[in-house]
Amino acid sequence: MTQTKTTTTFVLILDIKPQSWSPKQYDLMIEKPGEGLKFIGYYPGQTDIYEEDILKKNKDAQKSLVPPFEFNNGTNRTELVVKNSNVALIKWLTSHPDYDKKFSIFSEELESEKALASFENKEKALALINKEDINELRAIAMLIFGYDAYNWTEVHAKSKLKALAFNDPDKIISKIVKADYQSQYIASMAYIVGVVKNNIGHTAVIWTDNEQAIINVAVGENGNEKLGNLLASDSDNARNTLQEISTRIDAKTKQSIGLIKNDSSAILSQKDATINAKDQELANKDREIEELRQLLKNNAALASTGTITESVTTPMALSLDQAQALYLEKKGVAAPVNKKNDLTWLLDKINEQ
């Protein structure tokens, strides 16, 4: 059986949680439908809050102070618990100009929705900063934390980003969903991969290779942010600078990745060449064996008719490798170790009937 609640809890929804807090009460006016602004007050026992109407009905009605919100250690909230029978106070609180701005009625469902939204924001922020590429991770750190993050290591950048994702995910999300995010990201990446840098006095963003100035930086400004603002602007200079930075970033990243790729390609090419050479060697051997097999057949046929004109016993007719292969083909076994390099002996054995 569901138990009916007998109270309504109002909670402070400010970022702070004071031990005690009270809403504005004196000279408080709200809009009364069809009649304009009217004074309201808390009159215990009444069902109305408009002072003019209450006093018309009972000129002796006494207005009371609204009790303060108090911090509850058990719930970790600054709250005010009101009995549902106290219609006047509930009506006064829900009609107050600060209702749903500084305080509201506590709701388990609403709190769950807020908690879920908070968790989802954290997950979204974590997903946005979850980069496997070190340069991408450091560029995002620089975009969010500014030039201070320029010299951060991968571990430091990841730690700071994750801490921010848990503690203030909106700060990450708001930066990454902004319209100029891509320009700011490219500017930060240009710093990280070494395409641009600040000059010695930090008064300008310059090209790293020739130290020519790209844009001036005033005191207190972040070079990467200033460069990002330039890239986001709609001008020929912005478009040309963006194109040049993109080209240089491309070259830098391809160069670093290319070192690995080139090493791998060289190894693979070398292996392919070795395999191809062995394949070719085997093919040549097969062709030689087939030619020798045919030669044996032809000699056998000629010997039977007594018309053979050429013997394979001439040492120059065959190479040593060919003779070894032919001996193996005819005898079914390899030549003895002590005879395998004796071409004359091999030819004699090959011609034996």
Protein architecture, described:
This protein has 353 residues and is of the alpha+beta class. It has helices spanning 51-57, 87-95, 108-129, 134-145, 154-167, 169-176, 181-192, 223-232, 236-305, 320-331, 343-350, and strands spanning 7-12, 20-21, 29-32, 36-39, 69-72, 77-83, 103-105, 196-198, 204-207, 213-216. The protein has a five-stranded antiparallel β-sheet, with helices on one face. Strands 8-9-10 form a three-stranded antiparallel β-sheet. Helix 7 crosses helix 8 (223-232) and helix 9 packs across helix 10.
Layout of helices and strands, plus pairs?
Elements: E1 7-12, E2 20-21, E3 29-32, E4 36-39, H1 51-57, E5 69-72, E6 77-83, H2 87-95, E7 103-105, H3 108-129, H4 134-145, H5 154-167, H6 169-176, H7 181-192, E8 196-198, E9 204-207, E10 213-216, H8 223-232, H9 236-305, H10 320-331, H11 343-350
Antiparallel strand pairs: 1-6, 1-7, 2-5, 3-4, 5-6, 8-9, 9-10
Helix pairs in contact: 3-5, 3-6, 4-5, 4-7, 5-6, 7-8, 7-9, 9-10, 10-11
